[in-house]
């Protein structure tokens, strides 16, 4: 059911031999603190970041928001480890995050994801602020209301004001929950660039673009059944003001699915300027193929794309000066020391390191070049967006990250 | 059905040796909780295809459990008893399909947030088992050799970064006859200690011809028909609209015969099942030779617990070539030697880690060599960790350092 998670049998099987002698040790909390400490020291040394002052009066709502506020959420996915990012040996892979973004950002060093470590269900959990428990590979909506529904219903925003750009066709239901009090008609528009590209291409040309259509790194041949995308393609082409021919021509020069997603995001921001834009990057999940060099290349590309997104936010008139950008992984990957896994390749063990991530936030009203090392959770993002925009994420399990705001 | 209701006839569909193990331990199985027994049976049902080391482990576990007084057994199983199962799991035919039960139990544990409790329970139990029944040291110190970088002309990537703190980095290796020297040394070990599945040679390209029957070969090239059968299965299931879960289950149930693997002896069958599992149950080993070598080495170390392992990486195809393969448009794969070197460098570290997880780790040795170049690194109990040598040294000398601690000391003094 959750096949990119470790099975009970694998836990047991691996434990059957002497591999198990080195399993164990620290708890999730202890590991999260240790990882946080490592990230904190790393950032302090490298960027001069300082500890954020402790806040005694957290502002739960309307902390920094105004009707003009916008937010862009970028998931640094799918799943990168500290070894290749926020540790000394990983710094070479994220130069843009460290040198361009971190000096402008507040960085939470200890963000724990206690949910299921499959990409769709984990991203849905990020978007609802509650740990979802559905089948990672089933085309089902989240059970709890999404941030897009809170945003649109509470603030009476139109459908055009909230969008998701998602990497995999399996994400098509992430924009709107099945919750009775929200749901139908209140969610975000979801653009699946690969589906659009597939619909735009004639059968004979699809092979030329296979590198952009590759859908699922966990099982290479897996593609969910899709309805005819031609009507959707025409609709999106109108929204983006992009002819199908230009779309295909532009795609030809792109190197990866994530570059295609950022290309679409750029068009969307220019044409519609949505106030809430969510982009799920996924190239890093090539790690499932077991090729370390491709995994690291993808991290470097993701670093560049995050910086490009921030640059875009700074330079687009509709976004400049009023946009908060959040960057966070959905989760990490297995640590080298976890005998049940195979290091960077998967995120199956649920070990503490694969659950301990980070959040970077930057924008007007956000503290700059500081880190926060108290424990936080992945589910805190949605309540934080609630604080920013002024809606109540009433079904979310997390709490607002109050330290962000000046 | 509950474990207490188990009868000998329930195992009639199991392979011969597996059935015998289950029946011999029936009284014990009846006393174990439902959250645990199917996972044990998942191992038992594959008993006939397991390596000797795996069988010893499983036998020892039955002996350990069987010797526990009822009260102690209850304590040992308490954490498993505390796992709450769903009615569907309780109704499932876990005797016939313990593997599928395992998958469904896994989903249930993740969805109900019990996976961490389960992991803790498994780890605590196995640690207690290993403390009570420690593994014997290997009959000879283990040696693993990894050759990386085949086909690379020039390299600027800093090698062995994760291993340097553990061993001696050598920057002036004389590579003359290096590969032949490695192969001869490994073959000699296999001849000297002729134990089934104790000595392995894994190659990411086409295998070298070897003379020892006691050296088990495994190569990406030779397994091309197996990979083709697995990929065909994947394609077929995709076309028929099957989902990821079904695909994984189907691949894990592929029989060696479906991929043209046949054998005559018990050892042949064990090896064929292993080959099938390495290709079918891995992620990426069907497409990238570097992934194949790393994963095969990991599985050989974990399962066969060899005395000797020689793993040689070869260039893998590019990501674009893999995409073409997936699309069915590939003509000739384009190779990526430089990327493969980076993959293999990390894989060498993982191979060392996996060797260190076996018994006798403190006496084990490890050599990684940038093939036909001047760089190598040796980890040996007698070598100073974190050292660096700029002295010209032959491959045979590196092997002697790994083999003869005294000579190392002499050489360094």
SSE layout and pairing:
The complex is a heterodimer of chains A (406) and B (413).
Chain A lengths: L7 H8 L12 H20 L2 E2 L18 E6 L19 H7 L3 E8 L6 H10 L18 H9 L6 E4 L23 E3 L1 H8 L9 H4 L16 H11 L3 H9 L4 H15 L4 E5 L11 H24 L7 E6 L23 H4 E7 L7 E3 L3 E2 L3 H9 L17
Parallel strand pairs in A: 1-9, 2-6, 2-7, 3-9, 3-10, 4-5, 4-6
Antiparallel strand pairs in A: 3-8, 7-8
Helix pairs in contact in A: 3-11, 5-13, 6-8, 10-11
Chain B lengths: L15 H9 L1 H5 L6 H8 L7 H16 L2 H12 L5 H5 L6 H14 L3 H18 L10 E6 L19 E3 L2 E2 L3 H15 L6 E5 L12 E4 L4 H16 L4 H9 L13 H15 L8 H16 L3 E5 L6 H9 L9 H20 L8 E6 L5 E4 L7 E3 L3 E2 H9 L1 H8 L1
Parallel strand pairs in B: 1-6, 1-7, 2-9, 3-10, 4-5, 4-6
Antiparallel strand pairs in B: 2-8, 7-8
Helix pairs in contact in B: 3-7, 5-8, 13-15, 16-17
Supply database-style keywords:
heterodimer; A: 406 residues; alpha/beta; Alkaline Phosphatase, subunit A; 10-stranded mixed sheet; 13 helices; globular; B: 413 residues; 2 domains; 8-stranded mixed sheet; 17 helices; 10 strands; 49% helix; 10% strand
């Amino acid at each position: 059911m959750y096949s990119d998670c470790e099975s009970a049998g694998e836990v047991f099987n691996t434990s059957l031999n002497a591999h198990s002698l080195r399993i164990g040790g620290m708890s999730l909390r202890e590991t999260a603190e240790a990882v946080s400490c490592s990230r904190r020291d790393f950032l302090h040394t490298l960027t001069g970041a300082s500890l954020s002052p402790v806040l005694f009066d957290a502002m739960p709502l309307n902390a920094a928001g105004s009707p003009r506020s916008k937010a862009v959420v970028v998931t640094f996915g799918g799943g990168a480890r500290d070894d290749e990012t926020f540790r000394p040996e990983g710094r070479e892979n994220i130069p843009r995050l460290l040198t361009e973004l971190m000096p402008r950002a507040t960085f939470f060093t200890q963000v724990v994801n206690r949910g299921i470590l499959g990409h769709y269900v984990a991203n849905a959990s990020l978007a609802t602020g509650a740990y979802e428990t559905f089948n990672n590979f089933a085309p089902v909506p989240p059970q709890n209301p999404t941030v897009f529904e809170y945003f649109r219903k509470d603030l009476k925003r139109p459908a055009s004001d909230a969008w998701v750009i998602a990497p995999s066709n399996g994400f098509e239901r992430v924009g709107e929950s099945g919750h009775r009090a929200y749901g139908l008609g209140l969610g975000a528009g979801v653009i699946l660039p690969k589906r659009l590209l597939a619909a735009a291409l004639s059968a004979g040309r699809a092979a030329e673009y296979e590198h952009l259509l590759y859908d699922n790194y966990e099982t290479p041949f897996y593609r969910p059944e899709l309805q005819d995308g031609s009507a959707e393609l025409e609709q999106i082409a109108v929204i983006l003001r992009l002819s199908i021919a230009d779309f295909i021509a532009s795609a030809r020069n792109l190197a990866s699915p994530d570059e295609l997603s950022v290309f679409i995001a750029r068009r969307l921001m220019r044409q519609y300027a949505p106030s809430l834009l969510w982009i799920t990057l996924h190239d890093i999940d090539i790690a499932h193929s077991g090729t370390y060099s491709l995994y690291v290349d993808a991290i470097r590309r993701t670093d560049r794309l995050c910086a490009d997104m921030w640059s875009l936010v700074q330079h687009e008139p509709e976004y400049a000066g009023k946009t908060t950008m959040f960057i966070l992984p959905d989760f990490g990957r297995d640590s080298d020391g976890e005998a049940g896994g195979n290091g960077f390749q998967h995120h199956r063990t649920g070990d503490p390191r694969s659950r301990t991530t980070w959040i970077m936030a930057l924008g007007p009203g956000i503290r700059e070049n500081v880190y926060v090392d108290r424990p936080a959770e992945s589910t805190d993002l949605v309540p934080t967006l609630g604080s920013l925009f002024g809606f109540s994420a009433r079904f979310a399990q997390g709490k607002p990250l109050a330290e962000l705001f000046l | 059905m509950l474990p207490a209701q188990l009868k000998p006839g329930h195992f009639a569909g199991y392979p011969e040796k597996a059935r015998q193990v289950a029946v011999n331990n029936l009284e014990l199985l009846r006393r174990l909780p439902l959250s645990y027994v199917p996972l044990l049976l998942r191992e038992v049902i594959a008993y006939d295809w397991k390596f000797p080391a795996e069988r010893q482990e499983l036998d020892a576990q039955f002996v350990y459990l069987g010797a526990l007084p009822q009260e102690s057994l209850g304590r040992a199983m308490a954490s498993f008893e505390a796992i709450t199962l769903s009615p569907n799991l309780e109704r499932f035919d876990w005797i016939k399909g313990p593997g599928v039960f395992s998958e469904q139990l896994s989903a249930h544990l993740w969805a109900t947030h019990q996976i961490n409790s389960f992991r803790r329970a498994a780890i605590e139990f196995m640690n207690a088992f290993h403390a009570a029944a420690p593994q014997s040291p290997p009959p000879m110190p283990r040696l693993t050799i990894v050759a990386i970088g085949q086909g690379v002309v020039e390299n600027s990537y800093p090698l062995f970064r994760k291993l340097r703190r553990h061993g001696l980095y050598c920057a002036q290796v004389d590579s003359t006859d290096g590969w032949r020297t490695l192969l001869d040394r490994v073959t000699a070990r296999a001849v000297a200690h002729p134990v089934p599945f104790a000595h392995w040679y894994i190659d990411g390209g086409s295998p070298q011809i070897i003379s020892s029957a006691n050296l088990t070969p495994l190569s990406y090239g030779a397994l091309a028909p197996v990979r083709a059968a697995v990929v065909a299965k994947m394609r077929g299931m995709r076309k028929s609209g099957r989902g990821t879960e079904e695909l994984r289950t189907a691949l894990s149930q592929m029989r060696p015969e479906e991929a043209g693997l046949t054998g005559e002896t018990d050892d042949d069958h064990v090896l064929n099942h292993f080959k099938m599992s390495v290709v079918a149950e891995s992620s990426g080993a069907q497409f990238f030779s570097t992934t194949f070598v790393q994963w095969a080495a990991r599985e050989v170390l974990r399962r066969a617990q060899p005395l000797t392992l020689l793993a040689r990486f070869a260039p893998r195809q590019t990501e674009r070539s893999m995409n073409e393969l997936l699309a069915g448009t590939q003509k000739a794969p384009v190779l990526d030697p430089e990327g493969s070197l980076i993959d293999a460098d990390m894989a060498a570290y993982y191979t060392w880690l996996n060797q260190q997880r076996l018994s006798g780790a403190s006496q084990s040795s490890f050599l990684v060599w940038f093939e036909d170049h001047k760089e190598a690194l040796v980890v040996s109990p007698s070598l100073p960790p974190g050292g660096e040598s700029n002295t010209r040294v032959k491959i045979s000398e590196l092997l002697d350092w790994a083999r003869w601690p005294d000579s190392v000391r002499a050489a360094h003094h």
